Amino acid sequence: MPDRLEGIEDVGLDEAFLRLVIDEHRRGALPRLDRLWTYFRDPGEPVGASGGSGGPRRWRTGQAQGLPERFRADPLEGDEAKEIVIENDIAWRVQTMVDFMFGKPVQILSTASDAGVRRAIEVVLDAVWEASGGIGLLQDTALLGHVFGYVDLLVRIDEGALIQRGSVIAALESGARDALAGLVRIEPVEPRRGIPVVSADDYRRLDAYVIHLERGLNEVEEASGGARMARLFGRRGGAGGVTGWKPLPRGRGEKKDNATRRRGTVTEVIGSGVRVVYHDNELVRRESSVLLPGVVPVVHIQNLSQPFRYEGLGEVEPLIGLQDELNTRLSDRASRVTMSSFKMYLAKRLDGFETAPVGPGRVWVTDDPDASIEAFGGDTSSPSESEHIEQIREAMDKVSGVPPLAGGVVRAKIGNLSSANALRITLMSLLAKTARKRVTYGAGIERVCRMVLTALDAAGVLRTHPADRGVRLVWPDPQPIDPTSALVAARQKVELGVDESRVLAELGYGPSDAGVS
Q1: Dihedrals φ, ψ of 322, to 5°?
Q2: For the whole model, what pTM was predicted?
Q3: Which pLDDT does position 295 carry in this prediction?
Q4: Helix 428-458 crosses helix 115-132 at what angle (to 10 degrees)?
Q5: How far apart are the C-alpha atoms of 35 and 311, rounded to whole Å?
Q6: CA distances from 83 to 57, 86, 342, 390 (A)
């Protein structure tokens, strides 16, 4: 095992600083990011087994951590489990926002002055984005940004193969749509893995970018060989350790052995024109860029802009407190309903009552004149409880800007929505927030396109002037549009002199669609 990281100086960092950056991320940012994902995803995890060894396991969802102490029974200690109700209002609101952002494809149009160059740029960019995932890539990008507040897009280029590819103009003219398949790829980086090294002089500029993750290997790790994993990025909590592995706990009844799946770490450090990759702390790859020298090929996108901060504003964090309150009140109501929905009986001086079934036609006989049976319980209304839950939901509507109507829940109080304008007014808050996000996400997409075009020009694949590398995004209307009205409006634009290709793009037809010139 080497004592130092080979080649780390090439990216402008030293080993001690890299250790510090990863450790700060693990201790400071990672717990907060994990919490945001937990409240969005609300994953279930086993908390113990019931019915003895081998019995069915009990599960608890992630949002249960926000419930009061009275709901936190420990099945392993024999505590009686409280009835818990989790209604994940955060997830459907976030998914609705993503649908409004990228529910339909976005058209990327070149602003180059020459029509031939403009067409070539649009076809190439369309091929690059489609090969990277297309609309799915944009939806994943928006989801990460909405949950964590920001997302980074990494541009990966196979420079050797791209330079050998030569010009794609002839391939484009011959109808080949996959001329750049696999040579240029755009990847979203999950914030829990991506660690930005922000410039000390400008929070908007990156000096380097670190991608650090743990992965399971297809190897067996003997228990006695655990020390082999205590490397630079090894055991958690160890001396100088940054992150690490821990054997998964065995369930009841499982045979204990000395083998677990071996786990290792991958650390990728991207500097200005240089990239180094380490498996654990061993250098496995070093690359220098000739197409984007002096550039960190990472584009940062804030979900909602936050001045003077690298991180943006997410949609999950403001809703966590209200989500906890909603889950608490729903769980309290479930306990109340359980206790009061069924009749209970208090029997006095009546022998054997506790073993006798209660049912229609059942008669109890006794010679004791003081014997009695009293019924109590039964469901009762609780207007204040229902009102409080409704107010919590309305508060979540205001904080998120997503009314129930956006999720398909139609209530009588919304009034007459027979016109598109009435629907737009009802969704005004969500539409305004969507328009605000289009500024940040759109600027990120434009910077990615410019970076790709710069690399293609340097490789000789598609020659462009810097002034021709600008793009314009055509965003679809998030509201349903009557096709007949859209066609009438498009025809009127053409009659006014608007370029036909632009009008077709607004209708959702791109250069790759058959019959579009």
Answers
A1: -65, -35
A2: 0.80
A3: 92
A4: 110
A5: 16
A6: 16, 10, 16, 21
